[in-house]
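Lecture notes, unit on protein representations.

Consider one protein chain, 367 amino acids long.
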Amino acid sequence: MSADEQVRPLPERTGGASERAQTSPADPARREALRMTVVLWSMAAVFAVITLARSQVMDIPMRDPGGRMFSGRLQSAFTLLLVLVVLDAAVRAGWRERSVRGLLRGFWPALRERWTLRRTALAVSGLVAYHVIYVCYRNLKSWDAFNTDRDRQLHDFDRALFLGHSPAALLHDVLGTDQAAVVLAFFYESFVYVVVAAVVGSVALLPRIRDSYVMLLAGAWVWILGVGSYYLIPSLGPFASAPAEFAQLRPTGVSSSQAEYLVDRAHLIADPSAPDAFASISAFASLHTAFTCAILLVALYLRRRVLAAVLAAYLALVIVATIYFGMHFVVDDVAGIAIAVVAVGLARLTVHWPRLDAPPEVGDETG
């Protein structure tokens, strides 16, 4: 063999830049981003069509009283998102530089490191789609007022579970009806803030946008499955069907809300065409329980053990509060937990999370 033959170079691979682009490690990230966006917006579109069809049947237009269901909530969500993003970048820059001057110098690199154009688009798109689903849920929930309630059957089932006793009355005997009402009202009413913190906080603070989308998708599924349960078994809750059991409770914000719910429901039934006619009461299943449990399950999957322990305690208090104030029957809370399990399962199937201890793909850190 000649010397020339020994050093003959290997033939060049064909395909050039086009082949390298086809095998680029960024492609899976782009495909994943597209899949998550398409799935969430498909859910929103289908749910919106169902809501509009129901609106036609009921001859009641979709409403957003005072912007509380969509525009106002979306604006608040984006404001909180901006605040959390800025704080997160500042904390990360400060932790690396360990000085005020270094923090200022490292802020923009820290911000750009995580908030790429793709992640920003996914965050904005995801939050808008989530709120479209939410406003549809609230309108469908409002129209549930025209269905025949099944409170008597649920009330009897609750008593059968507790050997003829009211579970709410048992809690009143054990916890009392004064200070316990104040404490439990705080946890029950804090739910709305916990939901916003979980949804917006996950988008702003989790390093990987795919993890944020599991929370977004799980929350969306809770609202969709929850309103389905409302129509499956329409009900108002023990406070409305057996008010005498709760008459001795100390007045709280929860009891004030209960009175408003009944007035709003009566107003909607009496005059569905009124622009401000909007109901907010349905019991089966408990979405206070469902959404809180969904947040807990996501925290467990992310291996945030301390957060999961706090959420487990919070969930227990929320469940006790729903029964204590008569917002829900016991079976409502059981159904709420079932909805959470299904919702998080569907979200995980959609996103296809990898093992958290596996090496991240290129682009995983920024979405």
